[in-house]
## 1
Amino acid sequence: MKRLSLMFATTLVTGTAACAPSEPPLGSVAQTATGGATATADVRSVVGQSRATATATQIGDSIRVRVDAQRMPRGTYAAHVHTTGACAPPDFNSAGPHWNPTGQQHGRNNPAGMHKGDLPNLAIGSNGRGNFEFTIPAASVSGGSTAMLDGDGAALVIHSQADDHRTDPSGNAGARIACGVFR
Ligand SMILES: [Cu+2]
Ligand SMILES: [Zn+2]
């Protein structure tokens, strides 16, 4: 009976969505209950397997980024916001360089750094999971001169190696192994 109710609820939600006048355009943002804009990325491997969910939420004049990863080999991996919302496998070069609206160099340990898109390394444990939360100061999810979701959007990219947080332009982080467009 509980399962039946659940199925009914799912049908209801789907039916409501189908009645919406149109799909939101690429790069549009939803409003959270607290009023801050939010965007989410489904981060997938080169063969389309889900690897992480990334959420970017406007909090005051900052963006709070949360990344939750699963089904990854144990290790330490670079993660960045890249400047273009396009994830074409197998190399994900379509996502462009790190999001950098203020013209800085790469890395928090670089005196000329850092990019707005620079994030902490993702530490994956033996259970295949890992996560972090990080605040990007003086940035907006949408709108203004430091908008993450500008005309061509943005993507969350995970790399094969750790970021050294110093080497311009990409921290010696190796290949791009997973990518998700913020929507
Ligand atoms: Cu990157
Ligand atoms: Zn960078």
## 2
Amino acid sequence: MSDNSVFPGDKIASIEEYEAGNNTFDDGDMVRAAAVGEKNMDKETRVVDINHPKLLSVPKVGDVIIGTVAAVMSSMIAVTIDYINGNPTTSKVECICGTRNMRIRNVALVNDIASLKIVAHLNGTIHAVMNEPDLGIMFTKCRKCVGKVVSKSSDAIKCTDCGWIDERKLSSNFGKSNFVKLRE
Ligand SMILES: [Zn+2]
């Protein structure tokens, strides 16, 4: 965080000097921050803005993320990142995870919750893997009837409604109740 970092409620300037811009409000006396971010005080327009710290929300190599599967392709999945090392993020950054070598037909479904480890940033794309026991799918549903599923092994699930058995690369944290609650 730099000297320009502000937290919600922080006083930034007198309303006689500056007008409230993006992510700020004026309390009748002072312009205050309405969001976490970096303040940007424009001396010409006399407007102060708070810029959201997007960079703070980009995971680094080695970080573990939890996200929502946004797309499933033949050789990879795209995941929208919701948590970085357990901290929520709202910046909606996506990472991709190759699935070609997994020998599992339905590694994940769209809207599944997955835990991944970031391994590289390449050409603007964030690459992740799920090849450790605690990585993989943490929440999923039945592909046939969208019913509730239980794990049968580390790579198989069974629907409690229709009995359909399917493959997934499950995390050892699959079915942990706090993440199920996140989705309901
Ligand atoms: Zn089912």
## 3
Amino acid sequence: MKILFIDDSQNTDIKHPQHIMPSMEIGYASTIIKNKIIGSKVKLLDLRLDNKNTINKISKYNPDFIFYKPNLKSINKINLITKKLVNLKNKIICFGPFPILYPDKILKNTSVKLIIDGDIEQNIVNIINYDKLNQKGIIYIKNNKIIRTGKKLITNYDKFPLPDYKLFIKKQYQFLYPLQTFKHINIGFLETSRGCPYNCKFCSIFERSSLNKKYKPRSHTKIIDEIEMLVKFGINGIYFKDDNFLFDKVRIGNLCNEIIKRKLNKKITWACQARIDDIDDKLIKLMKKAGLSTISLGVESGSNKILKELGKDITSNDILKANSILRHNKIWIVGYFILGAPNETKEDINLTKKIIKQIKPEILQLHFLKKYKDSIYKSDDSLKDTYTLELKNKKYQKYLENEYIEIYKKYYLNLKYLVHIAPKISPYYFFQFKNSAKLVLKTLKMVIKK
Ligand code: SF4
């Protein structure tokens, strides 16, 4: 049995620089298939990294099933595959956030007959082996009506085996944040939990990788095994992809202690994403000792009114307190900010500019507010790129776009930023800043062109 995964889950045409990271669920699903279906082979085509000769590559491999993770622009690619390789017409099954949120777009515009609803690892073997329409966790179309049999979600994340990391190892994934190390980084990716129970109004449960609000952790012993596996593959930098890495601080404390105990902190440097209100001095010290270099923080705004509006449940004081803990412990910061929240005024944007100056993130990431189909700010039409403005008031839209350009330009093209960043661009961190310089230059290119 030959299985082909196609990862086409990001629109790589968007102008804002973005990471390209492996979809961890493909790694887990691959191990599960290999363990449960004797003699099975698994291959991954990552169209985000290489979309040349796709038809030839598929034809040469001649898979029994294709599991396709599409983005909102994939429909033409799927149709081209089934037009050129007619024998595969009934063998493509879609999975991932986009088909779960918009099954009609896939089922009505392509020859795809089946979508996996929920975590692919829970369902993939059943789907390969059994009667496809007679089980939970699928979406299909009957008499032009979309039928959902109910999501099948992970119940015990710890039951999963180690991911089939060989699928990812030779691919040129793109991670753009800096890590504090003098070594050339060979970056690896790991997911220690899925789900985030918070209620930030702009956040999409399904468009992020978590696939549910319920928090599902992996125990620290499993994570350590996975880190050791990555180290054996020559990986010395890790990005923990979790949406909310610090949600369970005890688990992270245990993980850090185990990293230190097994001396893995001598072999890896790492980064993660966290909420402002989870930044705690004692824990950050331990994380630093365990190899933490960089934290991405959802700061979003400098205005308490807007933070409340966004449902972030933090204040500007919390932001400054977290910043001072991180700076005191010499952790580098990637700061995410949102422009265009409902009721945001010029004064609110000025407060955001002020807090950016106070925090001085090593990397600044600005985004316009996006309404997703499944976020609390509902949108009926989420089929636009993540970074496009959807505001109805044209004058305000223009104003916001100008602010966006100005904030980026004033931040990155400023002597103060260079002074802040210069010591870190020493030869010591050269390899790291190659990546981040790429991110900064791409961002500047994007805003200067506007
Ligand atoms: S923005 Fe972060 S903390 Fe808020 S709901 Fe989304 S993942 Fe959770």
